[in-house]
Amino acid sequence: MSKFDRTCDSVEEWSFFNYHKDTLKKPDPKWHFDKNELNAIAMIYYKLQRDAGCEIRQKLESKSFDTVLHKAFGMADNALIQRMFGALKITSTMSLKKWIGAMSLFLRGTLDEQIEYCFKIYDLTGKRVIRREQMIHLMRKFVYKHQEEDVEEAVKDLVDIVIKKLDADRDGIVSYEDYKQSIHKRPMLLECFGQCLPDKMHVYAFLMTFTDKIKFD
What we know:
Elements: H1 10-19, H2 21-25, H3 35-51, E1 60-61, H4 62-71, H5 78-87, E2 93-94, H6 96-108, H7 111-122, E3 129-130, H8 132-146, H9 151-166, E4 174-175, H10 176-185, H11 200-207
Antiparallel strand pairs: 1-2, 3-4
Helix pairs in contact: 3-6, 5-7, 7-10, 8-9
């Protein structure tokens, strides 16, 4: 019995891969990992299970994923993290498939995949539009971090600037199509309402733990 990870017990490792063989042998075509990378990502899931005292047949508790977001990816906005869980369809537990899907999005996601994901987080009402009052709510915390006086006016000024960049059809609201079209022109605005994805340095550090196939634009 060959071991994939030297830090893991051989029997438990084999049991884990055998239990999840259908997922790993027939991966979702949307996942951006080769076979070895997929196994490595799965092993990280297994180690999180083991550290949390979960059995192989149990799903990972979502609080373990929350810890990864904080410690491995440096993401600290708890309000946005809760919305991230919703966008990724994560409840109190997280299956291996959802774990791999999230890692694929974070580490190798296409711009269109990340646009769809970020918009879901910013769309507070679920109506596929982001209105000015929603933008004010999302951006208020940024201004509070940097100044104490005239916060509301500063927030409104900042929102006005962002609307000019994102409202492609100039109707006063940002629809999904507005957002997508604008981000394709200016990708730097992808996370303009708050961090929803790990930054490049955290992505690089995480990828370095299991692959040498690292490429940034």
